Batch of 3 targets.
Target 1
Amino acid sequence: MIIDTPEVQDINSFSRLEYLKEVYGMIWVLVPILTPVLGITIGVLAIVWLEREISAGIQQRIGPEYAEEILVYSVSDPSIAVISILLSYLIIPFGSNLVLSDLNIGVFLWIAISSIAPIGLLMSGYGSNNKYSFLGGLRAAAQSISYEIPLTSMCVINISTCDSSSTVDIVEAQSKYGFWGWNLWRQPIGFIVFIISSLAECERLPFDLPEAEEELVAGYQTEYSGIKFGLFYVASYLNLLVSSLFVTVLYLGGWDLSIPYIFVPEFFEINKAGEVFGTTIGIFITLAKTYLFLFIPITTRWTLPRLRMDQLLNLGWKFLLPISLDIHDMFPMVTGFMNYGQQTVRAARYIGQSFMITLSHANRLPVTIQYPYEKLITSERFRGRIHFEFDKCIACEVCVRVCPIDLPVVDWKLETDIRKKQLLNYSIDFGICIFCGNCVEYCPTNCLSMTEEYELSTYDRHELNYNQISLGRLPMSLIDDYTIRTILNSPQITSE
């Protein structure tokens, strides 16, 4: 049978159309998977940027410019911690219909999944064959167990208040009563306990005992570099982001932003026809609450000192656990432990004062100096390189006698015909000099003087041993140096 050419073209075009439909279907299947991953990645990058900026503002400093990678291979894989934290994003709602998986046991699923991450940290510490790493892994496991119980208790109380363990139902239960229906106002003590427990779960200061650099180098991640260290780094910020999202969902009303007497749908004139716009507003509100809350852990990092391990465990088992298990009968418990309650109030006052100091420093303008192109005029108490005038020296060796370490070397010979000393060589080793200024002060002929040259760094310490030629080089004043720009009368500097 002979088929006409138009029919053949129709068959070919139909087959190509079916092929394109299959390709389109395969791509559309990947969209719901790649979209959350992209959003989570952007969220983590935003957290890292926020922490760098807020920390630089609080400490008035400039961050590092480059880093060097040292590859050290280990037998363990940190991907367990990352995957377990990524699964927690399945149940986080950004709107009433914008959630990957609205499960009836959503909150309990998050608790169960988050308990897997310390197992990965313990495995990583044990697999490093390093005692510091192993101790860091043990600390991570002990800390996670200690603070998961108060965290779970607060979640159970939220579930009993909202009559559901679904994250969507919890947000909708809070939105029924507007702004004052948030669980933040219903359970203020539970909110504080949840914040402290989440900080401990994320291993943020003052609960970063598993990574204490003064004690354990870098804890469980000491032997890791490259992509494996990057996975640990990403996991910590992923955990911080998911904890902040759950604070928003459980206590801050999620996507609902009902200001007293002003409701968002009426304020933005959102109706059923503007469902897309309403969903966008819900995402924006959720992320805004989350990133505003992130200011607390970032500021806490530069405010509170690191706890000892016994203090950390006592806080979890002796304070947070009784509060979380007896949250409804809090006032009788506090009256029964009046002394402990007074200590708590005193500690809260001190913490509040420390936060006020931190925030006051954050309001100051940073003093950024691009050294060595910009320099400050130092005070008179600073002493630089010693200048030596060969013609004035009489080789009396007073400088050698008054020097605490007998540093100057004076080489001379006696001229018998005129019965005077003739100076041959004079040297000072600035690698040993303490710049006390005694030689300048006691010199009878004023042949020694202090200069404003402070750059005495060399690659070879023997180059710091200056002879009379190097010492006799005319000093250049900092003000007269045309290659640099001095910073004078700066209001930020004078205020210090």
Target 2
Amino acid sequence: MGLLTGLMYQYPTEFLCKAWMLVCGYQSYKAIESTDTADDTQWLTFWTIISVVQFAEFWSDLFRRYLPYYNEAKLALLFWLGAMRGANLVYTKLRPLLVKHQDTIDGIAGKHLKQMNK
């Protein structure tokens, strides 16, 4: 059995999470190439929410091994965010917080981006 096949069998839900992200990436490509702007908004919203999920996942990795069905829950969340447009719902809740702190975030991000571009 090859390495890829072995990993798919050993970590099937983690593999499905990664595969689903590829599907979402491809859907984003299709949105970029289309003339419709509604799908652009859908996928930009999705990736905005995914960035928050990824940041939260950094911290949850400390407890991940103690949480049964973590990858299954993550797969369900990713599917809901992308295929069922759950990202739009989450974004409506997150947007007021972003608007309120936008100047602070821009200042911090700008400072770090300037250092990276040196």
Target 3
Amino acid sequence: MNRFIQIIASVDYTNKPPPSFVDKFHNVHQMLDAFNKHYEDNYIPSWINCLNESMSFWLKQYCPGLCLSCKSPIHAVTNTTLLQMPIMWQVKLQEGKDCSKDANNKPCFLTEFESHTKTSALMLYMTKPINNTGKVVTMVSGFCVAAGILELHDVGVHGQSLIKKCGRFWPKHVPGQLIDDHMKDKEMGFAETYKQSIG
């Protein structure tokens, strides 16, 4: 075990010097950029993709970032089963309020989508490789933001999101009472699509 710890302690993921500001993720930025660039150059995402929130089940004070990923499902047929395996093609560590800031107290790592709301900017950044393709991205409920889904449409990406009630509240623009009334007498497992126009 000690030998393994010594080996891991010697592994570097960057050959860049630390910046002048505090960057908790300096050691992995270069690796993540290389990962995203590799997939941008060598991989064409599927027609349907999935945008997920954190895959880190150990988030705590020592892990201040939220990991996001875009994936495409790949179907593999074996002699007995049809498998669905995701291929991750875009990764981002999303920092919160304690993100790296410069001497003017401005965030250091901005994207071209900063003029949008935070969640919409994140949706646009993560799906940038499939802009203007007409491909689909299915998102978890954290991305159930009408403005973001409409902005994805404007850049040629069809967005859809799981809608779920969080406690007593439905996401903004979701006709929660209508859905509650419609589903109250249905059997467990019943599913139906509700189509809504916003605007």
